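So, who can interpret the following?
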Amino acid sequence: MKKLSRFGQVIIALVVVVGVVAGLRTLPNFLGSSVLQNIDTTTYQAVNLDNGETYFGKITQYDSKSLTLTDVYYFKEGDKTKLIKKGSEAYGPEDAITISIERVVSTENLLETGKVMQAIEKYKASK
């Protein structure tokens, strides 16, 4: 078998590096598409993040880079029984958040019969 010249070795190394870089650049798009596969925009979703936080709301926009969640709720820190409405905090944020797809671990459509949806409906009825 003929040995590659130094120039040939450099060319092969460059092709491999370019291939790896191209693969890494498309990874977020691949991950984004997998966590956004089954979104039903007519209902609420749970959006689970890489830091353990979960937000509940309606995903109104999404693409391979980010998603926008409106009518947002989350559990009070350390208390998985108390649901907080986003926007009711002292600093007065808007009731919408945009989340980078890279932070999203999973999304789940919520059933109307679930405890979170019942808590959301109870909150809305009280306002």
